[in-house]
Amino acid sequence: HKARREAWARSMKPVCMYCESRESWPPLSVHEIERRSRAPRTWANECNYVLLCAPCHEGPFATMSHAMQLAVKKVRDPLNYDLEKWLRLRDQELVAPDRV
């Protein structure tokens, strides 16, 4: 999982996807929209990642709704945005397709 996550991060522009900061210290980190605890076997997917600076990761993204995080993902990483795939991370049968 770690290698896949790091490969995705390296493929992105080195800027925070929320505030567009280019600060390199502390380094940008990968945030998972759907937490590992909610999708323990499926969370490691490019559709679930957002690259953030520490202030955004610890600030707005700590309490931001999934819908807002996914909106950031759609704007900043449209090639890896896939709402249905993201919904299936936690709900593989897509029982609740409108949860976000």
Can you characterise this structure?
This protein is mostly helical. 38% of the residues lie in helices and 8% in strands. It contains five helices and two strands. It has helices at 2-11, 54-58, 60-63, 66-76, 83-90; strands at 29-32, 49-52. The protein has a two-stranded antiparallel ribbon.
Q: Could you name the ranges where pLDDT drops below 50 across 5 or more consecutive residues?
A: none
What's the overall average pLDDT, rounded? 92
Structural class: mainly alpha
Radius of gyration: 13 Å
Q: Count of helices?
A: 5
End-to-end Cα distance, whole Å, is: 25 Å
N-to-C order of helices and strands: HEEHHHH
Residue share in helix: 25-40%
Main beta sheet strand tally, sense and closure: 2 strands, antiparallel
Short structural description:
38% of the residues lie in helices and 8% in strands. By secondary structure, the protein is mainly α.
